[in-house]
Amino acid sequence: MKTKEEVREKIKYLCWYYESYSCSEAVWRILADVYDVMIPPDYLKISSINRGGACAGGRCGILESTIAFLSYIYGRENSEEEYVQLMYWSEEIHKCFIKQMHYTSCDNIWEALQNAIAVGKFKPKTHCIIYEGLVGISDVVYDAYMSLKRTREAELYEKCEMSSIKEKCNYYLRQNYVCSEAALRAILEKYDIEWTNQQKRVATIFQKGAAIGDRCGVIEVALLVLSYKYGRLDSREENLQDRLLARRLLEYVRNELGSCQCSQLTDMSEGIEKQCPRIYEVLDLCEEIFDNADDIIKNELKDFEV
C-alpha cells in the first residue's frame, strides 16, 4: 500500500489529469486510481449528478463523492453487518473538510471563494476547488480507508473456517507479514496458544534465514513454539523432550526437502520472505510434528540421547 505522502502527491497529479470532469465525477476516478479499486465504467455514471451540490447548492460534490466511494467499498451488504466505524469516518471527513474549506455546501464554499478571488486572495488551481478540497482531506481519507480495510479483513477472517496451518499462514502473508511472522501466528492459532503482541515480535528476525540464508524462518518459529510447549523453566530439570522434538523436526524436514537452510530451500531472491515457494511444504511437516508430539515423546524419549 502507498504511504500517506505518496497518496497525497498522486491526488495532486490526478486533479489535473481529470480536470475535464466535474468535481464529483473526478473524485470517484481519482480515488479509484489511488486506492486501486476496480469500478465498472458504467457504474461511474452515478457520480455525475452530485456536481454543483446536486445542482442545488447542497453538499459539495467533492465531499459527496468521497464518502460515497468509501461506502461503495466498505458499506454494508446486509443488515447484520456493522456500520458504526463507517459513520465515524464520515463525521471525521466532514470535520476535516470544514477545517479546510470552512463549509460543506457548494453555495457557501463558492460564495466565500468568489469573494476571495475578487480581491486577489485566492485562485483555484483547476476549474473547481477539487485540488484544494480533495488534497486537504487526503490524509483523513487515507486513515479512514486503512482503518476500514483492517476491520473488513478481520471480519472476513473471523467468518472463514481456516483449520489448517497453511490456510492461516496464507491469510497472514496476505496481510504483509513475512514468512516467520506469518508462520508463528498460524501455529499459535492452530494450537490455541495465546501470546501477546510483544511475544510475537520474536519471529521477525528469522525471516530469510535470519537475513543470511541460514535455517528456515518457519522452522525457527516452530522450534520456539515447541520449546514453549515442552521446554523447561528450571535449570535443575532434566528435560530432553523439547530437544527430542527439535531433532525429529529437523530430521523430518531434511529427509523430505533435502535441507533446513533457507538458502538451499529457496533461491534467496528479493521478497522471498513473503513469497517463499517452500513455506507450505515446511508448514505441513511442522504440523505433523506438532500433531504427533505427545506420541513421539511417549515412544522415543526413553531411548533419546543428545
**Structure class:** mainly alpha
Beta-strand proportion = under 5%
Number of helices: 18
Taking the sheet with the most strands, its summary is: none
Round the mean pLDDT to the nearest integer and report it: 87
State the order of secondary-structure elements, H for helix, E for strand. Answer: HHHHHHHHHHHHHHHHHH
What is the overall silhouette? Answer: elongated
Based on CA atoms alone, the radius of gyration comes out at 27 Å
Detail the poorly predicted runs.
none
Say how many strands there are.
0
Q: What is the rounded distance between the termini?
A: 48 Å
Helix content: 55-70%
SSE layout and pairings?
Layout: H1 4-17, H2 23-34, H3 51-57, H4 61-74, H5 84-101, H6 106-118, H7 130-136, H8 138-159, H9 165-174, H10 179-190, H11 197-200, H12 207-213, H13 217-230, H14 241-257, H15 262-265, H16 272-275, H17 279-291, H18 293-300
Helix pairs in contact: 1-2, 1-7, 1-8, 2-4, 4-5, 5-8, 9-10, 10-13, 13-14, 13-17, 14-17
